[in-house]
Each structure stands twice: as C-alpha cells, then as structure tokens.
Amino acid sequence: MIESVLIPTPAERRPIPHFRQHPSLSSTPVGKNRLTLLCFRLGEDDYAMTTDRLLASITLRQLGETWRVVNSKLPFFRHFSRYRTTLIPLIDLRRLWSIPHDVYDLETPILIVQLPRFNAGFFVDQVLNDVQIFRQNCFPLPPWLFGRESAYFTAMLFCEGRLTALCNEQTLLTIAQQDYIYQAQQTLARRQKAVSSK
Fold this sequence. Notes:
Layout: E1 34-42, E2 45-50, E3 54-59, H1 60-63, E4 66-68, E5 77-83, E6 86-92, H2 93-96, E7 109-114, E8 119-123, E9 126-134, E10 144-145, E11 148-149, E12 153-159, E13 162-167, H3 169-175, H4 178-196
Parallel strand pairs: 2-13, 6-8
Antiparallel strand pairs: 1-2, 1-9, 3-7, 4-5, 5-6, 7-8, 10-11, 12-13
C-alpha cells in the first residue's frame, strides 16, 4: 500500500519545499541524462536499482552454499554466501521493511549489488525488467514512500504506470550497520582460512 504520497503532475516537476531532491539527480552532465534501472517487486510495491551497480540477478540456487551468521542482532542480516570467490552478506529487505513473505526456497531472487567497500546480495520477491528513463522523470521524494522513510530512496518514478521507488543502496547498507557486516565478513573469512590451512 502507498501511504502519505503526494504525486506531482508533469507540469509540477519543480522541487516542492517539503520534498527532497537527491543530489545525484540534480545538475546532471550533458550526455548522462538517462538512468538504466532494474525493477523488482517486494510485497505489493515496485522498487528499482541502478544497473551500473548491479552485478547480477540470480536465484538462491545459482548462488550456492550459504552460511548463517552467528549471534547476529540484525533480523535482516542472517546469512553470508560466496559470489565469484568473494564472500558477500545477504540482506533481507522483506524483514528490514516488515513485508510479509513466504518461506525462502531455492528460486528466491537475489540481486548482487556492487558497493564501495564490498558487494552485497538483496533478497527480493520478483525481478521485473530493465527500464531506461530520463532523469527529469524522477520526482522528488515525499518524507515517506510506501510507508518507509525516504532515506532509503533517491527518487520516485513511474514505470509502466506504477509508482516505483529508486533505492539508495548505500543507505540500505549504512542502516544495516555496514561496519558490523564488514567485520562479520572478515571474521568468517578468517575462520574459513584457518580451516583450509589445517
């Protein structure tokens, strides 16, 4: 469900005082006016991530073996896996945003995203399609979108007639206590190295 969202018409695309325009979407250089996005669904709502950070869209079966994080205090961060020889944390957006979902199975979609310090995998409900949009078709953010704080997103837009939230991947990891995840990743790597050296 969409909660407390004010949707500007095309004639009202100028910034609205209580809306927040993300810095990455303003003063765009000539020739970089398009965004290529991968849309996906969580619950009843649509979201998108920029494909310049997206490494792969795969299933849990393709990802292979996963390891449980011991003593994690974060309900949305419980597992690690290996993607192309690199250990990655798996972030459950459905738990983070309290979205009801079925039990995971081997066909659960996972988006592998490149981040500044490490890569991460995000569980989603359904991968939709790639879209190309002009940056001017990204609308400023209301304080809340889909019942969640706008800090999770960089903009809102319309894809195939549906309101879509453009995710801020870096903020997602910051909110998920990035340093904690990084330390846990290093701890797991050290344990595996110790086991393999025996």
